[in-house]
Specification:
The protein is mainly alpha-helical. It has a single domain (12-398), classed as Up-down Bundle (Growth Hormone, Chain: A), CATH 1.20.1250. 78% of the residues lie in helices and 1% in strands. It contains 16 helices and 2 strands. A two-stranded antiparallel ribbon has the order 1-2.
């Protein structure tokens, strides 16, 4: 099977503009989490949350809301098109952000974060569905890599923006900025994005049709197993996000340098995504991602072993963590593309089911890793190696024990 492009479905945008728009929408979730990381301590103190580990629930609640809502936005976008559910989700997200800026209690904060995540689910599910509407095969992997590369700029700059905001204002202003970002996205979607769903692929929004779509997704061996592999590996990333402030500030005493180091780690994934976009059409998704998964497993094993032996000095921690994050940037876009590739005829439902499994699975695993924080980086390193080993098992089962074998012909 070769790479494909549905030029008729491409909106009235250049390829560069299309990728930038998809990345801007995908970045909604990153900005919702990363911009507030420097303010977690202030938020917890303001709302009377004494335990540092309990403050992580602000992130977990958002991820759980996003995971659950993906089950609905996919089928909705298969029935009504991509644009109306996307706009509805962004509107819910913006309203919740404004409400959070005025929240009086931690319990209400968690409820609103869950609802905000539910609104943001539209950007995750529908963005991937739009890319699948327009591209297939290795071109989809290439475009997803470029989307991920631009998307990763947000984690690079968001913590610094959050740090700047709390330097001049209270933490509430962070969520005002988040709401304005959503309003900007609504304006762009209204003015620039066309409908990409082929009318022939619209599906009725009934329980039987939705369950049928779910069955198609869950009974496709490659899609299911690559989704499970992505889910557990995402758990490592969510585990780091949950405990990043505690590890980098609490363990390594970085203080105001925290956003800069966090940005450096995110940059490694951006560089990897760009590298993947340059190489994937030549070498294929499987050889690149399988090699990266093996590298991820090896790097996290070395990191865990060294951490168990003695507390790692900061330079060693940076080298080993950057090594794992570079591999992650090669794994994620390819695994997502391979999971979506066989399911173009039910792209919305497929994206919702796969996104639900990845987000819920990853957030639960990430919460477990984050809650295991004990004042050292050892639980984080152990969590990374554990999920890497489990992900490798899923991929071996998916490929019947044969790694690195491409399924698509190289681009001409």
């Amino acid at each position: 099977m070769t790479s494909t492009t549905n030029d008729d479905a491409l909106p009235g945008l250049t390829k560069f503009q299309f990728i930038a728009l998809m990345a801007t929408l995908m970045a909604t979730n990153a900005i919702s989490i990363d911009i507030m990381l420097p303010g977690l301590q202030e938020i917890g103190a303001s709302l009377g949350v004494a335990s540092e580990n309990e403050r992580q629930y602000i992130i977990t609640a958002y991820l759980l809301g996003m995971g659950v809502a993906q089950l609905f936005f996919g089928p909705l976008s298969d029935r009504f098109g991509r644009k109306p559910p996307l706009l509805a989700g962004l509107a819910l997200y913006a309203v919740c952000a404004v409400a959070i800026a005025m929240v009086p209690t931690f319990g209400l904060m968690l409820a609103l974060r869950f609802m905000q995540g539910a609104g943001a689910a539209a950007t995750r599910v529908i963005t991937i569905s739009i890319v699948r509407d327009v591209y297939g095969g290795r071109q989809m992997a290439e475009v997803m890599s470029l989307v991920m590369m631009v998307f990763m700029i947000v984690p690079v700059i968001a913590p610094s923006i959050g740090q700047l905001i709390i330097s001049f204002a209270e933490w509430h202003m962070i969520f005002v900025i988040v709401a304005l970002y959503a309003v900007m996205n609504i304006a762009i979607v209204l003015s620039k994005l066309g409908e990409t769903l082929d009318p022939a692929h619209r599906r009725a929004f009934t329980p039987s049709v939705i369950l049928s779509g779910f069955r198609i997704v869950l009974t496709n061996r490659l899609s299911l197993l690559y989704t499970l592999a992505t889910s557990v590996i995402l758990g490592a990333l969510f585990g780091f996000i949950n405990s990043a402030q505690q590890v980098l500030v609490g363990v390594y005493d970085l203080g105001v340098w925290f956003p800069l180091v966090f940005a450096a780690f995110a940059s490694m994934m951006a560089v990897a995504s760009f590298t993947n976009s340059r190489l994937v059409r030549r070498f294929g998704m499987r050889p690149l991602s399988h090699a990266a998964l093996c590298g991820f497993t090896l790097a996290s094993f070395i990191w865990m072993s060294a951490s168990l032996y003695a507390p790692l000095p900061f330079p060693a921690f940076v080298v080993l963590y950057c090594a794992t994050m570079f591999q992650f940037g090669l794994i994620a876009p390819n695994f997502n593309a391979m999971a979506m590739e066989p399911l173009g005829h039910v792209a919305g439902t497929a994206s919702s089911v796969l996104g639900f499994m990845q987000t819920i699975g990853g957030s639960v695993i990430g919460a477990f890793i984050g809650q295991s924080f004990d004042g050292t980086a050892t639980p984080l390193a152990t969590g990374y190696f554990t999920v890497a080993a489990i992900g490798l098992v899923f991929v071996l089962i998916a490929e019947r024990g044969k790694l690195f074998k491409p399924h698509h012909q190289p681009a001409g």
